[in-house]
Amino acid sequence: MTSPHLPPCSILLLAGGRGQRMGGRDKGLVEWRGRPLIAHLHKVARPLTDDLIISCNRNAERYAAYADRLVTDAEAGFPGPLAGILAGLACARHEWMLVLPCDAPQVDEALIARLRETALAAPAAPTLLRQGQQWQPMFCLLPRSLLPALQQAWRDGQRSPLRALLQLHGQPCDCTPDDPRLSNLNRPDLL
Tell me, what DSSP letter sits at residue 23? Predict the structure, then answer.
């Protein structure tokens, strides 16, 4: 369980992509070690929140078993992860929302706790994982109060989560460049 001094947070699992690198397959439902990728994230996230949200744009009936609520992008055509983040923030019940990608099944509770503890240092800013010099914007903790600014960035044409979050003074939670917990299994050869 998480540390008692950490405020509660909603958790958003991003599974709304087109799956181009998976040949069009829905990444969250691709099996790894005998279970769908989303099941691995669910196992870690479920004990940490009473508000587990999955962003999905297809296969809602299959994802429903892994979430308290499902959200879809406001625009059709798979506009990207920032659309899923916006949908999640709009319905998050807690003041904080943790974002995790469905194709990173090795994320663990220790990494999530570290991200949450880092966020306490600048509670009005987004906190993003960073491996060496490489930012990982799909692993982030966002105050729900950022929703209007992110919606404005979207209306202004911003589609990059990284650029949008850094413009809002995103702070790093640093990890080693070779941290296996951040391995993205987003191509068939990586499975």
Answer: T
Distance CA(19)–CA(27), nearest Å, equals 6
Which residues neighbour 92 within 8 Å (Cβ) at sequence distance 6 or greater? 10, 12, 51, 53, 144
User: Which pair of structure tokens corresponds to residue 120?
Assistant: 């306490």
Q: What was the pLDDT predicted at 4?
A: 54
DSSP letter assigned to residue 83? H
Q: Taking Cα atoms as reference points, which of 26, 35, 76, 25 lies closest to residue 54?
A: 26
Q: How far apart are CA 67 and CA 11, in angstroms?
A: 10
Better pLDDT: 20 or 170: 170
Domain boundaries in the chain? 10-190
Specify which residues 129 forms β-bridges with.
Answer: 136, 173
Beta-carbon neighbour count of residue 109 at 10 Å? 13
- The pLDDT assigned to 191 comes to 42
Q: Indicate the SS3 state at residue 104.
A: coil
* Backbone φ, ψ for residue 20 (5° rounding): -60, -45
Would you say how long the chain is, in residues?
191
- Summarised one tens digit per residue, pLDDT across range 3-62 is 556 789 999 999 965 555 545 567 889 887 789 999 999 999 999 999 999 999 989 999
CATH of domain 10-190: 3.90.550.10
CA distances from 152 to 104, 118, 124, 147, 172 (A): 29, 26, 17, 9, 23
